[in-house]
Amino acid sequence: MNGNGHILSVRDLKTYFETEDGTVKAVDGISFELERGETLGIVGESGSGKSVTNLSIIRLIPEPPGKIVGGEIIFDGRDIRSLTIEQLRKIRGKRIAMIFQDPMTSLNPFMRISRQLMEITILHLGYTKAQAYEHAVKMLEMVGIPDARARVDSYPHEFSGGMRQRVMIAMALSCEPELLIADEPTTALDVTIQAQILELIKNLKQKTGTSVILITHDLGVVAGMTDHIIVMYAGKVFEKAPTRELFKVPGNPYTKGLLRSVPDPAHEHGKALYQIPGLPPDVAHLPAGCPFAPRCERAEEICRQEFPPFVQLNQEHFSLCHFAEEVYANSRREVEQKQAARQQQDENQR
Amino acid sequence: MSQQESFTPHAASMPPPIEPEKGSELIAIRDLKVHFDLGGGGLLDKLISGKSVRRVVKAVDGVTIDIYPGETLGLVGESGCGKSTLGRALLRLTEPTGGQVLFRGQNLARLSQKEMREHRKHLQMIFQDPYASLNPRMTVGQIISEPIETFRLARGRETDERVQELMETVGLNRRFIKRYPHEFSGGQRQRIGIARALAVDPDFIVADEPISALDVSIQAQIMNLMEKLQREKNLTYLFISHDLRAIRHVSDRVAVMYLGKLVEIADARVIYDEPLMPYTKALISAVPVPDPEIEATRQRIVLEGDVPSPINPPQGCRFHTRCPYAIEACKEVVPPLAEIKPNHFAACIRISPEQPDIEKVAPGDAPGLRDPQRVIAT
Lengths: 350, 378
Known about the structure:
Number of strands of chain B: 12
Largest sheet of chain B: 8 strands, mixed
Strand order of the largest sheet of chain A: 6-7-8-3-9-10-12-11
Oligomer: heterodimer
Strand content of chain B: 15-25%
């Protein structure tokens, strides 16, 4: 694979925050690539650095206290870090668009929906007011707002949470961006509305070919939506793999723990749920060695002493762990055992 | 339905695992209503709409269900369905406007404020937001000892010992007794909230979205802790959540709520594997499964539209505006909960014990209408 297929390539990105507590390495040397038309999931708990990663990509890190201190963010061949603010503004909202978690705080409550939608196309595409208005109606129709023409002049408070998130999506897609970053786009929504919004993002992506970065803490959401996943913990990429591979044969104890701690329908009733002990890391005071070691079942002395290597498990699968190969081999064995058990069952039934 | 003499939705035996006998319920909720009057109906409204209409939110509108000792009843529904209001009304944190809540046979609504306060010893609550529900200016020790002192359950050093014991029970280091809430993470704060609820040795706890604000790895810890405490202290839970995966995991029985009404009640596993109501089916199918292979193949029922406003809920079956199986009659008849399968109750006129599968019901047929027990006119 050569570099031409990549819309975005992040290399060794480091974003630090200066606090009274010392330097917080919110994102500490992460790398990933995103191909055109691909959806990448970034999964992590609070404090893992997933949102800081996405804010870094469009340089929305509040500075001070934050600062991108190292690495490259290559978007379509150009390093975002080297752009002037003027150049950056031409990209933000036009070529890279974002959807945030809470649509109520990201929409201006004093402005009509129409005006908020029109602003973007007038600014970026040079539309006249009339053109922009028509485009706003068209976008609302596209995201499934019933009676769009009648509702385009409403204020945000007149819309429900799900509808507001649709408006956010309409706004984000107004200029047909090449990259859409969705940061917990459905976390504030009910499940039936979440299903609607995820379906919508999926359909629109098929239609427009936009590349998507989907940031979430919900493993269920990324399972059905993404091609690749990176799992973040304490500002590091702990595991990177194609989605199916990651869920089937995880190569990192943290990923494995996360997957096991989600209650699933096959779980035996009355049996305790698997739990990862301890608390998410305090990024300001990370232990020496592997940041997950204090919570890890597999940890040994070396994990508390030395920072783990980023081990390549196969062509596209990497894991940050001293015992990555062992964990991976175990996952593979478990899959084989499950298959064998299933075959046995089938034969017994026959 | 004829074999069922005198149908009542809460009648007879409800769930395994505890074999309940009639009258053995810890809490009996009867036709509970919580209506919020928003006013209106004044001159201005009259001029605009031509008639005087008071705007009333029927947050809980006629809920009847029993909760048995030692069980976890899961209450699930989307925002605005009234599940939190129901939980609060049970403890009279929100005053019910109608119906009864019987705790060990005693009607809580009749108690004076003072008597009710005494009863709060038995009935406790765990809140969703561990950041907002703890007083930031009190230490953990003060937070947990407050209910002990209020009910004079211990004094002096005894109180301290009890507080430390409670901290240990919920997995907090007893050395943290002098710390303030802001020094703890979300999961630890939820543990403090649980310790405070346990301080008075209650029988019944309403847990309102206790894990929703927590990280995935911490959710499992809190669910396991609550289950452990239930076993050790024989607690009864009403576990309120919008998270169906969690509800299914912790509950013995599950009740599904939609716009102020219960629409389905069944054993946790049954409701997940064989839901009867179109709404429950959609709710379950909307939950994303953390397995890409299942996600790639499964058919998702995506409901159209939003939950209607509880101010003017739809007439008839409140789900008819979003229900793919709704017929004309659904707009007119309010379906009561009926026992469609043994211990499996659903509120839908289109299904019956003879044909519980809504997809196989003859087009336009509504067997519920033929059963006089199940017809309540609007």
